[in-house]
Design a protein that fits this description.
The protein is α+β, with helices and mostly antiparallel strands. It has 2 domains: 212 residues, no CATH class; 111 residues, Rieske [2Fe-2S] iron-sulphur domain (Rieske Iron-sulfur Protein). It has 10 helices and 12 strands. The strands form 3 sheets. Strands 1, 3, 4, 5, 9 and 12 form a 6-stranded mixed sheet that branches. The longest helix has 29 residues. The radius of gyration is 25 Å and the shape is elongated. 26% of the residues are buried.
């Protein structure tokens, strides 16, 4: 968490994350460049420049696939959460790898072109009316522009300036960018391949991303309780919530409420972290505060406020007990509004 904008808050975990990430990219590129000509079957002779371009291009595609897998994997198993904390570093490095791929392509195909390189890319092939020979470059350009946009706006300044909701919607462009890159590879790099392994790799990657997101969605749907906005509503029995954790309630207007248990007491706050709308209901209460599993922002469950000197706040909700059942008032309190926790033994609303 930060109380002012600073370039990067480096810590040991960030250093380890980035070092492992850079080493992994380096090892992949070394294996591809050194052993690729032996392992890959090209229908046409490939120059070293094009081989290097394919090494960086395939690396960028694999990195983007892993980025899109981290989110649903962390929702399915919290052991993957450490990979989520600094995922923006992963995305920025992916951009640099992709730019290197583009640099090789431009320098090889358009170095001596009488027209500017970018213009040459866009005008060399305009056969939009057919599948084979379709100008797949446009898909790659779209994906690259999205990666550039997301990398530029990855700093928390833009998150604060654009608001978390708009910032999140902007970063959802990563999904159409990934679809465009799948099309870019399928219509381009696969056309001169006689071996099926690269096609299998592309299908497996895209299928894996889809399957993980579907599994995470189904898990979330099973664990949530959807309720109307009429009067007080029943959440669940008190014993259904594990001490230190939450039951997430989805209201009809789409908002989610996290009902937390701390010992024999219960409190409710918005499920959306003020930082990046991270799922607070997947966090755990420690010393009266819940920690967002995405980036470590903390909030007191009693008033939805971050501990000083931090200033982030989320809405709170009023609770009551009807026997052993937890009752929720679906009307949100303003962010940072203190509420009185309810304890087992209380009755009525």
């Amino acid at each position: 968490m930060s109380v002012k904008y600073i370039p990067v808050q480096w810590n040991t975990n960030k250093w380890i994350y980035d070092i492992v990430l850079i080493l992994s990219v380096g090892i992949y590129l070394w294996i591809f460049i050194e052993w690729g000509p032996v392992l890959l079957d090209h229908g046409k002779p490939v120059t070293p420049q094009i081989h290097n371009a394919r090494a960086f291009g395939s690396c960028a595609f694999l990195m983007l696939t892993l980025i899109l897998c981290i989110g649903p994997a962390a929702r399915l198993n919290q052991k993957f959460l450490p990979l989520l904390y600094n995922r923006r570093h992963f995305g920025v490095l992916t951009l640099f790898v992709a730019l290197t791929h583009v640099g090789y392509i431009l320098d090889w195909y358009y170095a001596f072109s009488p027209t500017p390189k970018l213009e040459g890319v866009l005008t060399a092939n305009t056969s939009f009316g057919r599948v084979l020979g379709f100008p797949f470059e446009v898909f790659g350009i779209f994906g690259l522009v999205v990666l550039l946009l997301l990398a530029v706006t990855s700093h928390d300044f833009w998150l604060k300036f654009l608001t978390p909701r708009l910032w999140k919607r902007l970063h959802m462009l990563l999904y159409p960018a990934y679809a465009a890159l799948v099309a870019h590879v399928a219509l381009g790099a696969l056309q001169d391949q006689t071996s099926p392994w690269r096609a299998i790799f592309i299908l497996f990657s895209a299928g894996g991303v889809t399957a993980l997101h579907a599994a995470a969605f189904l898990k979330e749907a099973r664990s949530e309780t959807t309720v109307s906005l009429n009067d007080w509503i029943t959440v669940c029995d008190a014993d259904d919530i594990e001490d230190g954790f939450a039951r997430v309630v989805r209201l009809e207007n789409g908002e989610r409420v996290a009902v937390f248990r701390s010992g024999e007491s219960f409190s409710a706050i918005s499920n959306a972290c003020a930082h990046q709308n991270g799922p607070l209901g997947e966090g755990r209460i420690v010393d009266g505060c819940v920690t967002c599993p995405w980036h470590g922002f903390q909030y007191r469950v009693s008033d939805g406020c971050s501990p000083e000197p931090f200033t982030e706040r989320v809405p709170t909700y009023n609770l009551a007990l009807d026997g052993a059942k937890i009752m929720l008032n679906p009307d949100a309190n303003p962010p940072g509004t203190p509420t009185t926790p309810v304890s087992l033994g209380e009755n009525g609303k």
